[in-house]
Amino acid sequence: MTTETHSPKAAPPKQENPFVSIFFNILLPVIVLNQLTKRLGENGPTIALVVALAFPVAYAMWDWKSRHHKNYISLLGVVNILLTGGLALLKLEGIWFAVKEAAFPLILGIGVMGSAFTRKPLMKVITYNLHVLDMSKVDGRLKDLGHEQDFARHLRLSTHLFASSFFLSSLLNFVLAARIFTAIDQALPELERSAILNDQIAQMTWLGFVVIAL
User: Fold this and answer.
1) In angstroms, rounded to a whole number, what is the distance separating the alpha carbons of residues 140 and 45?
2) How far apart are CA 6 and CA 110, in angstroms?
3) Structure pTM?
């Protein structure tokens, strides 16, 4: 008599709390940029910028350590934040920020679109890794019904649609950033120019979230 042994399924990774993410990635940086820029003296804008950008970076590190799960979105967010800080510290303005804001979703969209032409479209990767459905049973049922190719086509189509959302996000980001990051009068003192740039970054942080979310 033989007995079957079943290895326990791996526990799904702990899900990220979206409210905590918004608090550290959006609210805290905006508050710091708005409130500390003019209250820390001559180096106020620079200090406020560094502190504001430190919150999302620290959160991404904490999230990775606490959940032991690779969060590629957070990683890209950190790179985006570091680029924002780099542009600001280099005193670059206007079109540079608009290009940066548009470039990230554009690159993501191209990557997602490209995955649709591989054996593992992004939507297939997501579907099979969400730990919500028993995909072995789903695959078995699809095989029984002869719908495996139909399901594969749906995954490719949904990947194309997902990529289009990134392209739309890129366009919206560019238009919004071009309106927010207007030219700063070079005749103004450097401290005042830095304060204005911090204010523009704060506006882009929360307005960008609102526009893309809607």
Assistant:
1) 59
2) 41
3) 0.69
